[in-house]
Amino acid sequence: MNDILLEARNIGKRFGGVQALKDVSLTIRSGEIYGLIGPNGAGKTTLFNVFTGLYARDSGEVQFAGKALDLGSPHAVAAAGIARTFQNIRLFANMTALENVMVGRHVRTRAGVFSAILRTRAERAEEAGIRHRAEELLHYVGIADHANDLARQLSYGDQRRLEIARALATEPRLLALDEPVAGMNATETTALRSLIEGLRRDGLTVLLIEHDVKLVMGLCDRVAVLDYGEKIAEDVPEAVRANPIVIEAYLGASTA
Amino acid sequence: MKTHRERAGLALVALALIALPFVLAMAGTAWVRITNFAVLFALLSLGLNIVVGFAGLLDLGYVAFYAVGAYVYALLASPHFGLHLPFWVILPIGATVACVAGVILGAPTLRLRGDYLAIVTLGFGEIVRIFMNNLSSPVNLTNGPKGINRIDPFQIGPLNFSASDTFGALVFSGPIKYYYFLLLVLLAVIVINRRLQDSRIGRAWVAIREDEIAAKASGINTRNIKLLAFAMGASFGGIAGGMFAAIQGFVSPESFILNESIMVLAMVVLGGMGNIWGVIAGAVLLSFVPELLRYTVEPAQMALFGKLLIDPEVLRMLVFGLALVLTMRFRPAGLWPETRHRREMSEGRT
Prior knowledge:
The structure holds two protein chains of two kinds.
Chain A: E1 4-15, E2 18-29, E3 33-37, H1 44-51, E4 59-64, E5 67-68, H2 74-80, E6 82-84, H3 97-104, H4 113-118, H5 121-141, H6 156-168, E7 174-178, H7 186-201, E8 205-209, H8 213-219, E9 222-227, E10 230-235, H9 237-242, H10 244-252
Parallel strand pairs in A: 3-8, 3-9, 6-7, 7-8
Antiparallel strand pairs in A: 1-2, 1-4, 4-5, 9-10
Helix pairs in contact in A: 3-5, 3-6, 5-6
Chain B: H1 4-27, H2 29-54, H3 63-76, E1 77-78, E2 83-84, H4 87-106, H5 114-134, E3 155-156, E4 159-160, E5 165-167, E6 170-172, H6 174-197, H7 200-210, H8 212-217, H9 222-248, H10 258-271, H11 276-305, H12 312-330, H13 338-349
Antiparallel strand pairs in B: 1-2, 3-4, 5-6
């Protein structure tokens, strides 16, 4: 439970004159739900994009599962075992829900052009496996009924679930969720919360960016707080909540 | 599983396709030639469909690969270098050279999308054409604007594709033989396309088209998969080009102008990007309609007004253009769009 899964050291990222991340170091332990909070513009999503290879970092490094993580390309990060969802849902809109999840299997399967053209026995077996796993995952996140609906036709909440299913299809060890309950009503939030708790029960490590403080405090094992690109706290939720620096920076001094 | 009705339908279509050239030959061999070009364009459209339809990469220079295939054939089977290799050796070489050209075009454009990619590919198409035009000195490689003449026709054993053979009452003219060969190639390309579309690679192409960043984050090596799309599309273009050279017996840079790229793109878009059958329908329609107009515009004017009021060529392009505009206005996703088809297929399989 206490093995370190991801260790980031001194991550720095600058956009022109803005220092978006300044020497951010953090450790995520295997099997925990790790929350990342902070005011708008604090650098949470930027850090996410660095961890998943979408942004090139300016400095620092990341150890993942005991090895240096190649942050140069997103597909290498996915292959290493980090999957993510996006704050503003990014699905393959004109593919069916099932196909969306099947795409997630890409990184764990091998069939190339020639075996696809020849429909070799191995290719057909692999395809059947991809389809089967995708169906299982749709069932797991609770949208099996919509397998053949186009992604863009799904409800907002179901799209969030589909994105999680697609991410799970890559067989991640760390699932990074960028504001998964943004825009959801109370019922949908509760349902997604139990989905995330289920993920932890099944042994997955979750990195969670969230604005919903109640959700973060209730769900996360540990929480880090970013402010102006710097980590100002990293602790269990109760300690973070009581931390005067956090109260001043994030919750606002007067409301404390 | 196919039902009996579907099987019967397929058998009927096959019979019709086999009988077609003899029916057309009654109206004149010209119509068989027109049909051959329609099939050739269907091949090109299916190739371009991989790049534009599946992977969503707008390519305005596709004719370059057609040109590469045609010139490879011309150089290896004509008196120009005195080489006369058989077609079954040359076509794979042409496909390979075109494939390499596809990767050469693809590699520097990987970060580009949409309009920017279109401009670069347009430039690439022009570069290839200008090369063909000017590679006549100091070493005469392409014979410049004069083009390469007396290209060998296909030869299978005693069957020469430029001469007629008679079997009983049936006369197999050269174009009819090419027709059957083209049909076989088209069939193979359709099978390849369908299998790719339903494969891990095909899904990756569509994923890139739908959302490249999400595709990356889902573990797709977008660089390799895009290059693969360019390479596959280019190979089909190269094969089509080789057959074009053999059918024509002559190639020159003039055959590979931007207009041709635009025409093939129009076929893909009009038919329904991403859908194999739609793309073929687009190619057949856009090949036949101008020819039909060519034969009807003049007689129609003579019958109506007793004289020629508008030059047939002008009117033909006007009607053609109008038809295109109207189609895109009322069926913006093409005559036979992709989504429904894909859904039907996945429903049929689960």
